[in-house]
Design brief:
Elements (H helix, E strand, L loop, with lengths): L1 H17 L10 E2 L17 H4 L1 E4 L2 E4 L4 E2 L4 E7 L3 E9 L21 E7 L6 E7 L5 E7 L4 E3 L7 E6 L3 E9 L12 E12 L3 E5 L15 E5 L9 E14 L9 E17 L2 E7 L28 H4 L22 E9 L2 E10 L2 E5 L6 E5 L3 E11 L4 E12 L2 E12 L5 E14 L1 H11 L1 E4 L5 E4 L1 H4 L6 E13 L3 E10 L15 E13 L8 E12 L5 E14 L3 E16 L11 E18 L2 E14 L4 E15 L4 E14 L2 E16 L4 E14 L15 E13 L5
Parallel strand pairs: 1-15
Antiparallel strand pairs: 2-5, 3-4, 3-14, 5-6, 6-12, 7-8, 7-13, 8-9, 9-10, 11-12, 13-14, 13-15, 16-17, 17-18, 18-19, 19-20, 20-23, 21-22, 23-24, 24-25, 25-26, 26-29, 27-28, 29-30, 30-31, 31-32, 32-33, 33-34, 34-35, 35-36, 36-37, 37-38, 38-39, 39-40, 40-41
Length: 742
């Protein structure tokens, strides 16, 4: 009997030892320190792992809320004063169903993956993210609680390795501490951490080591506090990265000639990164080839009065962009086309964070905004472009910030000043405010040139010629000051959400370093929704009904648009997502008299109605299918009349095997009136990628446009402004090799 009791106590002790790290996963813990070297090779036989702290990820936190995970996942963590080491053992009852493909950096979002989130200041403002798939491919990002966005443009050098095993897979990670900003004046660090596994099968599960309360919209705030890194220092790191880019392009315009013209381009540049202090980093680039190395995704611009937005892909501008982020994005660096140099400094000192950059541009382009449309103007002058951002976190509930942007050329400048604040009185409620002021000036010769560019000759009722057009009439804003402000409130809890916004933009406000399409506008928005969450026995994982109402006027109170939207969103089996919605919109199609900006008794107002649908799912582990569909009655802006509209956008991503991926997007857009075609526009964007390894790939891109117009269905006075047909085919073959993530 005594022997049996002793064995039972010993068994209980061993069991307690084995699961000591997972009995209370929400409890803080201390990271052990090791002097034993670790080789990152997905082999956990290194002796240092015996010293590591062990964590179990037992909690499904999405789409469920804190239910038991169906698979077992272990994490091990240890540090050596310079590097943080994490290892994962991800068990799977069916290892053959593990989803893992070789991809370029930051492209493994659809795979099985494990990772860690780290808040080095433990202030719930930013969190570093490191995710790895079973083959070792990397994704790193920064989660910004202020903007509620995740930026995958943040790339640092760290090591990872992955291996699929008979029980699941193993991942090993080494993150140098020099990559992270933290206060190294502290003897002991206290960081927020969350260990994660994403398990995509019929639905994708987010498995964590901690509880996540869905009633609290701030998930960074709920991470476990971890201590360790005694005496850790970041060090003043200096990195110099020489770059070489070479390309050859050929093109021809069939309207003029069938001869090909070719152009070669080779350039050498230098990128520099210097840790001035542990908390302040300087980035610089010299003679960069900032042309788009990879072709942008195709966009159709056939029935829009506003300029199109193109995302930033260039690493210098996108790195550490969270330090200059504001509730309203005031910095759109795609406006900076061809710089010779650029420099950026970012840092955080306690509750104070800041960021600034400056770059020249061999030419200067800016938007001419309006309330019914916008246009791009290109000025052939070199300019200096810069931004400065400072933010003070008073506490976790309140923060204030200020931003300034500059665009300055010989005959033009635009300066912008902004103050913003955030207040979070409860975990469910957030108030954001932002006030902006602009100062713009152009020389008289430039003003005359811009006016000539945009003026339209319009014959009045007396047969006399007058000049008009919204962008021409708004050139007065090029020598003026203006203001804008935004008030925002949102409530988010587990089952429902509500938002209210008020945006006010004066007639002369300009934000030329931002993507600011609008001016002379007041917009009010009210919206909200209700969420129902399924459990493991339900056919759905999440059902959401949401909608909003908004009304937009000019500064005189004349209505530009009134819109109501209602959507039904359903997430279900095969990682499916369905979004159906209806839209009703009263909208101004244009001015009757284009020689005045006045809208009173001077607008063509029409009523639009649409049915929209987006559907996506993954029928197999290597295939993703999606489709956007729209049918309704929309404004034909060219003719300022109603037309029947139809749009279709099927897409697919197919991982043929671990190395080869095909991606196709097809856009079909059609307007008809009285059964007769107004236009038919088609876009085909095809990308075929062979990934040799984590660091190298070969990609073929083909983008084809085909636009046909029935000019007989266009107003007679504008037929000469359009081509009956437009066809374009662009192909690109791109090889990329990365020595490291930088």
């Amino acid at each position: 009997m005594k022997r049996l009791l002793a064995v039972s106590i010993a068994s209980l002790f061993l069991s307690s030892n084995v699961y000591a790290g997972c009995l209370n996963q929400d409890a803080a813990f201390h990271i052990p320190k090791t002097n034993t070297p670790i080789k990152v090779d997905a082999d956990l036989s290194d002796e240092a792992w015996i010293e590591a702290h062990r964590i179990e990820m037992t909690n499904v936190t999405w789409p469920d809320e804190n239910v038991a995970a169906p698979v077992r996942t272990e994490a091990f963590i240890v540090e050596d004063g310079e590097t943080l080491y994490i290892a994962f053992k991800a068990y799977d009852p069916e290892p053959e169903k593990i989803r893992a493909f070789l991809t370029d950096r930051d492209k493994n979002w659809n795979d099985d993956r494990v990772g860690i989130k780290i808040d080095t200041y433990n202030d719930s403002a930013l969190a570093y993210q490191f995710f790895i798939n079973p083959l070792g491919t990397q994704t790193d990002a920064i989660e910004n609680e202020l903007t509620k966005q995740e930026s995958a443009s943040w790339d640092v050098i760290w090591d990872s390795a992955g291996k699929i095993t008979d029980f699941g897979y193993v991942v090993e990670v080494a993150i140098p501490l020099r990559n992270l900003n933290f206060n190294d004046n502290l003897d002991i660090q206290s960081w927020g951490m969350e260990f994660l596994r994403f398990y995509p099968r019929d639905k994708e599960l987010r498995i964590s080591n901690t509880n996540i309360n869905h009633d609290n919209a701030c998930w960074i705030c709920q991470m476990v506090t971890v201590t360790g890194f005694e005496g850790a220092k970041q060090g003043n790191n200096f990195t110099a990265v020489p770059t070489f880019v070479s390309g050859v392009s050929e093109s021809r315009d069939l309207d003029d000639t069938r001869d090909w013209s070719d152009e070669s381009n080779s350039d050498v540049g230098l990128d520099v990164k210097w840790g001035i202090t542990p908390d302040i980093t300087l980035n610089a680039t010299f003679n960069p080839d900032f042309s788009q190395v990879e072709a942008d995704s195709g966009q159709l611009n056939v029935n829009s009065t506003f300029a199109l937005f193109t995302p930033e892909k260039r690493s210098f501008f996108s790195s550490n962009q969270d330090y200059i982020a504001t509730p309203i994005n005031l910095i759109y660096t795609r406006n900076i086309n061809d710089p010779d140099y650029g420099t950026k400094i970012t840092g955080k000192l306690g509750d104070h964070s800041f960021g600034a950059f400056v770059a020249n541009d061999s030419s200067t382009s800016f938007l001419m905004p309006g309330n019914l449309g916008s246009s791009l103007y290109e000025l052939e002058e070199e300019s200096t472009n810069g931004a400065l951002r400072y933010r003070y976190a008073i506490n976790k509930e309140m923060a204030i910030g200020t931003t300034m942007t500059i665009r300055d050329a010989d005959s033009y400048h635009n300066y912008l000043y902004s103050v913003d604040g955030k207040y979070k009185p409860t975990e469910n409620d957030t108030f954001d405010v932002q006030f902006m002021s602009s100062d713009t000036e152009v020389s008289e010769p430039l003003l005359a040139t811009i006016q000539d560019e945009f003026k339209d000759e319009i014959e009045n009722e007396n047969g006399d010629i007058e000049f008009g057009g919204e962008q021409y009439l708004r050139t007065d804003s090029l020598n003026n000051t203006g203001s804008s402000y935004r008030l925002s409130y949102r409530h988010e809890n587990r089952d429902w959400f509500f938002r209210a916004n008020h945006n006010n933009i004066s007639e002369n406000f300009r934000a030329d370093l931002a993507f600011y399409n609008n001016t002379d506008q007041v917009k009010n928005v009210l919206g909200g929704g209700r969420i129902w969450r399924g459990n493991s026995d339900d056919w759905y994982t999440r059902i959401e009904v949401e909608g909003d109402w908004d009304r937009t006027t000019d500064q005189d109170g004349q209505q530009l648009e009134q819109e109501s939207e209602l959507y039904l969103n359903i997430s279900g089996p095969k990682q499916s997502f369905i979004r159906h919605g209806i839209v009703y919109r009263d909208r101004v199609a244009g001015r009757i008299n284009e020689t005045t900006l006045n809208l009173k008794n001077n607008v063509i107002e029409l009523e639009e109605q649409e049915f929209r649908s987006w559907m996506e799912f993954k029928p197999t582990s290597n295939l993703w299918l999606g489709n956007f569909f729209k049918v309704g009655e929309n404004i034909d802006f060219a003719n300022q009349k109603m037309a029947d509209s139809f749009a279709l956008e099927p897409r697919f991503n197919w991982n043929v095997n671990q190395h080869l991926q095909a991606r196709l997007t097809y856009r079909y857009n059609e307007l008809t009136r009285g059964g007769e075609e107004v236009y038919t526009a088609k876009l085909t964007d095809f990308r075929l990628t062979y990934q040799f390894s984590i660091r190298s790939f070969l990609r073929l891109s083909m983008v084809h446009y085909d636009i046909n117009r029935n000019l007989a269905n266009y107003n007679e006075d504008i037929r000469d402004d359009y081509d009956k047909t437009f066809k374009s085919l662009a192909t690109q073959l791109l090889y990329s090799y990365k020595l490291n993530p930088q």
